[in-house]
Amino acid sequence: MHTPTRRTFLKSSAALAAALPFARLDLPAAGLSGTPLPPLPAGARRGLLFDAADLARIRANTQHPRFAAYWQSLLDADIAAATTFLTKELRTTNQVTHLLRAQQILDRASFIYLVNGDPAQRDLAKLAMRRMLDFEEWDCFVEGGKVLGLQRATEGTFALLLALDCLGDAVTPAERAEVEQAILTKGIPACHATVYGLKYPDRVQGWGWNPRSEVDSLRHISLKRWPLILNSTNLKIIPTACLGIAACWFRGRTPEADSWLELARSSAKSFSTMYGSDGSYDEGVSYWGYTTLYLALFAEVLWRTQGIDDRSLINYPGTVRYALGNTMPTIDDHRSVAAVTHLPGYTMPVVKPEFDIVNHGDANGGVEVSVATWVARTHHDPLSQYVAADIGEAKHTYGLVWFDASLPSAPPPPALLDVRQSNDIVISRTGWTARDCVLALRSGGPGNHEHADRNSVIFKAYGERLLHDPFRAAYIASQPRWMLRLTGAHTAVLINGQGHQYHDGSEGTNASWAFARVTDYRTGPGWMTVTSDATDAYALVNDKVTRVLRTLVYLKPDVVVFLDRVTLKDTPASVQLRFQANNEDLAATLALPGENFLITRPHASLLGRVARTPGVTVRLGKLPLEEKDGSQPYAEVESAAAASHEILTVCSARPKGEAHGDLQLAREGAAWRVTGTHAGQKINLTLDATGAQPVLTLA
What we know:
- This protein has about 700 residues and is an alpha+beta fold.
- The protein is about 30% helix and about 20% strand.
- The chain has an eight-stranded antiparallel β-sheet. The protein has a five-stranded antiparallel β-sheet with strand order 6-7-8-9-10, with no helix packed on it.
- Helix 1 (about 10-20) crosses helix 8 (about 175-200) and helix 14 runs antiparallel to helix 15 (about 380-390).
């Protein structure tokens, strides 16, 4: 068995120096000359993420209960199928899915070889590397005649460099030089052009789709404003990080690397303001994982190879708490969920119930643990170690590289049960297990990958998502599941059947103009209340709207009071409140017992009681999707056309087989009162809505 050693990390410079005199470098975009690069002095370069001394810990991590199943999934991957794809099916004009798949094969096989020296994995990794080099262009975006690196050229650059570390002496000097040559000619210029354009959007001549790439399903998307739009999205930090990592690799061998590194660090610093002071991130928790991982990778490589410390560029311990706060595991009944194709050749991921999340916007994946493993090591943060060991899902090899089982761990403190994030998303919970209850309100401003979901609510109780926010909305406006992005697909308010402002998708999944703002947030023993004002968002669609306020009172563990107030000037309008059921697995039923609505899932149910006032009705509905595109039922409370609406809805949850309590909803002057008993809990609540902020009294 071949075991790579520290010698692995000393080979690349000499190999490059030996082979590059026979190659011509043509890098006008990045300013590289064609001069052969000198080798570094022996022992000068460390591995990007690990050294030989780390291998024993990494190997032990593959057997750790936290990572053993993930490691086995890597070992179980079909080598024959991967080989067939690489040799017979891969098309070098398909960067979107085929180059990505080749990269994923390289990532997996090279890492397995690092750990156990399997020659079959070595050969597969080298084949994947060869096929990546066969692509003449590494991305599907261009500016003029230059390729722009947003994901494939960027991730591919880093994947190839890391694979050189993993494969070590299994890569010959000539092969190593060829890989580095490809990075210098196809990776770095593409990364550089993108990062430069994002820093100086006024200098961009115009971004477009590569005419030679297989992206016909995407060509309708206008890239005209992308140099502006992408500055606040994950697609800025990926090329930034990969340019910076490549600069670290080549620094000291070409003077241009210093300018690459300076540009990358400047870009990372400007992007760091996209995180709140508490570490929150506007694109949702799954995009948080992708973005923060690459920010951490850059910081780690920069520190290890250059001694430059940018490991506190953002509030990393805080951002792990942000991710933790967005977890809400549910019970896994192993029911199947129909596959949804996002792009040709790409199936949208399905979040496993045990890794379920607060999925505002396009958040379609669970919290991945790699960032937490890195933060635990670099910031000596016991809560991050707890997340690394006990919360979320292991889906990347970086967790295996960074996890240190010897670090101290501490569970979340009670203060994290109720959180108002700096981006005005409010999450309140009873705990962190599948049977605990979680209530989440989406207030705040626009963000890339958002939905038209201001003032929408997600509620999980007793292992079930009972008030739902649909997963896997389409990224392309012409696809039927685009409607899952709109207000009508959320537990939110409609006015005359219309939601608030949203874009038409012509520029992708970029931000809208819709704002909501938390105007009141308070907590106490066993309760939380929040009021969010979404008036501005709705007024962009209907200029007669003067007020859209939603107040929630959460009486833990399982009673949620909704008070919705909507007013208009001059022209009366009807108001609809939708309460979405989770029917992703076709296991939800809805009914209208009495004058209430009931959502039933296999392990729990939710009963919605509506205060009866003139003109208020309750009915059941379903989004107009064909069966192949999913089934999304909801209960709807409607208030007939008027200039002013005030609707009280009280929802309670119970485990399967347990009865809901008897709660009375009544108007007493200007106030609403909720009284009764539910699950042994006596409730006596008054909401006085005379002022802008309802006055809550709990007796």
